[in-house]
Amino acid sequence: MWAVGFWRAAAWAAPRGRRAHSALAQLSGILEAELEGIRGSGLWKDERVIASPQGSHIHVDGIPGGILNFCANNYLGLSSHPEVIQAGVQTLKDFGSGLSSTRFICGTQTIHKNLEAKLARFHKREAAILFPSCFDANAGFFEALLTPEDAVLSDELNHASIIDGIRLCKAHKYRYRHLDMADLEVKLQEAQKHRLRLVATDGVFSMDGDIAPLQDICRLASQYGALVFVDECHATGFLGPTGRGTDELLGVMDQVTVINSTLGKALGGAAGGYTTGPEALVSLLRQRARPYMFSNSLPPAVVGCASKALDLLMDDNSTLIQSIAAKTHRFRSKMQAAGFTIAGADHPICPVMLGDARLASCMADDMLKRGIFVIGFSYPVVPKGKARIRVQISTVHTEEDIDRCVDAFVEVGRLHGVVP
Question: Mind telling me the catalytic residues?
Answer without folding.
Answer: 206, 234, 265
